[in-house]
Design goal:
Largest sheet: 4 strands, parallel
Number of helices: 9
Shape: globular
Radius of gyration: 21 Å
Strand content: 5-15%
Low-confidence stretches: 13-17
CATH superfamily: Creatininase
Mean pLDDT: 94
CATH architecture: 3-Layer(aba) Sandwich
Number of strands: 4
Order of helices and strands: HHEHEHEHEHHHH
Number of domains: 1
Structural class: alpha/beta
CATH class: Alpha Beta
Distance between the termini: 67 Å
Length: 273
């Protein structure tokens, strides 16, 4: 009898573990499940490892990109979109922050090499659609996508910046550019234990370029981060709240999920109307 009870409890525990596995998250699922699925869309969250003012963790961009990818995939999966979230890439282009402690830089040429290998695997697995969900302002995949289209013409690759899916000014007093109210609020919602009290945060005050064209944004140049901001932040986080962060996160992931469903359904050889 005791053995039967132990066996029953073990089976119940295994069932509980199995139901917690998410078949749309590659790192959590298994070969048994993967072999039974016909995935149509791969999702690659891509962040960075860098300072985010005094109060947010170095992994902020990774936390935000990965959570946005997984939540959007969950919603799309519930609508029968066969999506699979690949493991997050934790390093981004941080060439302007080389003098900030432990900001890890990955050059664009390295990103290209990495993406080329990933797309090669997707092609071999007959997954013809890849969405990069970007969490770092220093990452720009536009030219890489153009080059990949020559190497792998049968694979449709696109990218989005998760924080630009919705207008942050509709949710926040001052969204900010880096470790400001927007990012702080969403991390407070997702991982509050990783956020220091806001009275520990700097004000995120930042200098701008002196030259008009650069200041207005129609001329592009890299910023030298430690000359721009003392606390590494750009934007004041003091008004951030987990409630506003949650509202923004849910709205963003709803829109991404809708896009994923549309992409799942579309024929990549017939994309235009």
């Amino acid at each position: 009898m005791a053995n039967q009870l132990a066996s029953t409890n073990k089976n119940d525990k295994n069932k509980e573990m199995n139901t917690s596995q998410r078949p749309y998250v590659l790192a959590e699922t298994n070969w048994k499940s993967v072999r039974e699925q016909k995935y149509a869309v791969a999702i690659l969250p891509w962040g960075a490892t860098e300072a985010h003012n005094y109060h947010l963790p170095y992994g902020t961009d990774n936390i935000l990109a990965e959570n946005a990818a997984i939540e959007a995939a969950k919603k799309a999966w519930s609508k029968d979109a066969k999506v699979i979230v690949l493991p997050n890439i934790p390093f981004g282009v941080n060439t302007g922050q080389m003098d900030v402690d432990l900001c890890i830089n990955m050059n664009p040429s390295t990103q290209m090499a990495l993406l080329k290998d990933v797309v090669q695997v997707l092609e071999a697995n007959k997954i013809r659609k890849l969405v990069i969900i970007n969490g770092h302002g220093g990452n720009n995949f536009k030219q890489i996508i153009r080059e990949l289209s020559i190497i792998y013409p049968s694979i449709f690759v696109c990218s989005l910046n998760w924080w630009q899916v919705k207008d942050g000014s509709q949710f926040f007093t001052e969204p900010g550019d880096h470790a400001g109210e927007l990012e702080t609020a969403v991390v407070m919602h997702l991982n509050p234990n990783l956020v220091l009290p806001l009275d520990a945060a700097g004000d995120g005050k930042a200098k701008t370029f002196k030259i008009k064209g650069l200041k207005e944004g129609w001329v592009s140049a890299q910023r030298k981060w430690t000359q721009v901001t003392k606390d590494t932040g750009v934007g004041n986080p003091k008004m951030a709240s987990p409630e506003n962060g949650a509202n923004f996160f849910w709205a963003v992931t709803d829109s991404i999920a809708e896009f994923l469903k549309d992409l799942h359904e579309v024929d990549v050889d017939n994309m235009y109307e």
